Amino acid sequence: MAPLPAWLGLLALLAALAGCLGATEPATSLRITTAELIEPGAAPKPVTLPDEWEHSAPERDGAVRYRIEIPDAALHGEASGMFTRRAGMSLRVSLNGRPFASIGDFDRRPLPDMSQEPLLVPLPSALLQPRGNVIEIELHGERRRESGLSDLWFGPLAELRPMHARAQRDRVHSAYAVSAAATVMGLLALLLAVRMRRLTYAYFGVASLLWAWRVSLLTPPTSAPGSALGPALGPALETIFFYVSYPWFVSLMTLYALASIGRETPRVRRWVAAWSVAALLLIVLNWSFNLPLLRTLVSVGMLLMVVALMIQLFDAAWRERSQPAILLSVAALLAFGAGLRDFYVFRIAWDYGALTWSRYTILVLLGVLAWMLVDEFTRSTLALRSLNRDLADRVARKERELHLVFEGQRKRDREQATRAERDRILREMHDGLGGRLVAALALAQQVQPGGAVVDPESDPEAAETAQAHAHEAWGELKSTLDDCLVELRLALDSLEVEQRPLVEALAELRFRIEPSLRAAGVRLVWQPSELLSGAEFGAGDTLQVLRIVREALTNVIKHAQASVVWLRLEPVIDGDVEPATPRALRLSVIDNGLAQRTQQLGEALPLFVPGALGRGRGLANMERRAAAVGASFSSGPQAEGWCVQLELPLPPAATAD
């Protein structure tokens, strides 16, 4: 079923048309439908009004006179007048042989067409006679143009003015209203065609603008007969285009309707294009040879096209029950009825003054298009909302799935990190604490109770040697156990997750290992730079650095035979950078054992020079740990003694500080 607004629009259109044609006749005014025609060089003859020259005298060109006797009953001593719905091209009016009104320019060629507006001519009371008044209308017309005279009304001006106003509204005001509506909808349709890339709207847009231009021309284009190839080519083409605009409008609306129901095919487009060209040729021939039959053929062709369109629309409406097909079927039916009525009135009855109904059919089509646009927008909006809800549901489901996946992945990452940290702690304890515990166990076996005891009285020297060995083993056991405690504390420190300054970690290591250094007779000189007080590293990197330092200090205790060891922490600054910003830190462990041993032994090289006779396991471990934190490692003699050096890049935060 068609929606309620469509039915209301159709009823309003029918009411408007009924109002245009069903107006009540005035009470005292009289309608005149006969006149005496006086042509130059011919005897007067009676004619019936309306008289359309294209039908009654197609070759007539020039001026004729219509002589009408005014019935005495139409004049009552009041202000009287004459009303006609249409007269053209230009005319002069005389009353009782005396001219009193002139409409149009008689000297211009081609003549201006004054036939589009209804005429109300007041009759001068000074020229009226008590009886037997005669009015003559001198009409100037041209061939191949819509010249003629419609029926006349005589009576009081008070009765004729409403008739004139109604005719003015029907012919002029309605034309402007239709033109404005068609222009707005045509521009809107073209805008939609461009934005949506749909040819359907382009058909409707061009057809609407074409109709708006045609309806708004109260004075149609004019061209002198036979001037199509002469200087007035422009006006001639404009006149031809005016007449061909109607069949082209029908063709474009046919394509629009078929495209709306999905039945516009290339074959249909070819047939419509061929008919449009044929209509143009028929109108050009009619303009050139003044053959009214050709215009009749154009009208028949338009009616046949509308009939073919209606068959397609009715078939689609019946088979598919689609709203566009139903609405367009109703619109096509009304357009066909209006066209059929106009064909009868203008081509069979030859009513020169009749009002065309076809111009109003565009309002139905505009209403159908407007409703289809609103319906399409509504359906698109509802579909978009449904799609949005569906997408929202899908996104919510995906978010839940991703959340579960993320939680699972995070759980696996935590488990993997836990395993990696456990493996690291086990490795550190195995490499550091495990080896020292094994050494401590071996020393404990040497000093365990119940071992071999030498009697001091029987062998004092052996007893003293055994006691010295036991005391030495006990000292080594104590030192080894201290190392185990340091290793355990380092392993526990590595479990911290927060960063802390490297100076602070080195200070703790100094506090823990300094007793061992003092027991070995080595003095520790602490020399950290204030520029690196805020340098922070991760717990893992800090542990690697501490192990390198501890390994270096342990070598000093066990092998260096040094009396002083320097622990230096200083920045590495590029000399050409301003302002001076540290890019790395240099950590050095320097002992004076190399110089002392050289002096004591008098040799070029000391007895122990790490790396001189081969690379020890301690140096290899230190190099491996330095590589793990991205640092460069070196060891070797310097002027102050043996130096173990580590150059570690500063993290970005520390560099910025």
UniProtKB/TrEMBL annotation:
One family from Pfam that matches here is: HATPase_c
For this protein, the parts annotated as crossing the membrane are 175-194, 201-220, 240-259, 271-289, 295-314, 326-345, 357-374
Q: So what does this thing catalyse?
A: ATP + protein L-histidine = ADP + protein N-phospho-L-histidine
In the UniProt record, the signal sequence range is 1-23
Q: Which GO terms describe its cellular component?
A: membrane
Keywords of this entry = ATP-binding, Kinase, Membrane, Nucleotide-binding, Phosphoprotein, Signal, Transferase, Transmembrane, Transmembrane helix, Two-component regulatory system
Q: Which EC number(s) does the record attach to this protein?
A: 2.7.13.3
Describe the location of the Histidine kinase/HSP90-like ATPase domain by residue ranges.
540-651
Where does the Signal transduction histidine kinase subgroup 3 dimerisation and phosphoacceptor domain start and stop, copy by copy?
421-483
Output the InterPro entries linked to this UniProt entry.
Answer: HATPase_C_sf (IPR036890), HATPase_dom (IPR003594), Sensor_HK_TwoCompSys (IPR050482), Sig_transdc_His_kin_sub3_dim/P (IPR011712)
A single GO molecular-function term is: phosphorelay sensor kinase activity
Question: What is this protein called in UniProt?
Answer: histidine kinase
Q: Which organism is it from?
A: Rivibacter subsaxonicus
